[in-house]
Amino acid sequence: MNNRLKAKIETHRQQLTGWAFEEGILKPGDRIEFRPLIVLSKGDILSRPAQDLKFRVRAQKMLRRLGIETIGQLIAKTADEILQAKNFSMTSLNEVRERLREQGLKLKGD
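Below the sequence we write its predicted structure tokens.
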């Protein structure tokens, strides 16, 4: 993580802590724990296994049939290409689109 990002995070942490004391959410002596922030770039997300998106069984089978192993390979497919998979329906396609949308991604051509 670069220094500019670290400084920005620290500034926000201090502001949040101050606000919490002002609002009475925190009291003197309360212990505050901040956990490390993990920043994933689009490249990191695209190289993750497609199974990380937690699809139902039908969608998982479609991924196997099409030889899709990573999220990057999945978003390189169009809706029409995915619908070519045996027993794959619009309901399953909508599930795929929703899981991708949760990650800020979409299928090719969407």
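The chain has six helices and no strands.
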